[in-house]
């Protein structure tokens, strides 16, 4: 995952290596770094969040696709005559004074978790039968057309970006919000902050029996919508 800021924008990217692909962790790292750098540069230049998010997914896809190489380069040292294609999923989020934006490819997700009231899912999984991925980043996938959405919250809260290793154990916003609010209360009501809350989410998934990579990134958002 990767986190950055530019001006009034807070930006995050979370990627999850496709388990059946080689160098999956490398693919996820490259995609997150490239996606974040593009987002920060574009938003800093005044590009609209929606446009920047699409561009970041495409840039990340091309960077992961460039990792393809002889299987001999992989840890197993398979047949050097064949080629391998590292792959990963992708979700990016932008938080600013006017709202939040998200873009996703695959089954990594974005959620809006307000300080008050119910949360909402901001992405839809690219999956087919038996939850098989229908879209991802990598040389063996088409250029992505990310699911881009925006939301203007009435209350302050958190924009959550996460992998399926988390949401499979906390599949609804009620459960996610409960863990975040409990961790946010902190010891003695002192508050924990986004990093503590993210660790609490991952800890919940692991304690529930999670074995897949569980990643959570929370972007704090202060609502600019007048009360009433």
UniProtKB/TrEMBL annotation:
Pfam families: PP2C_2
Top-level lineage group: Bacteria
Record domain PPM-type phosphatase: where: 1-221
Protein's UniProt name: Protein serine/threonine phosphatase 2C family protein
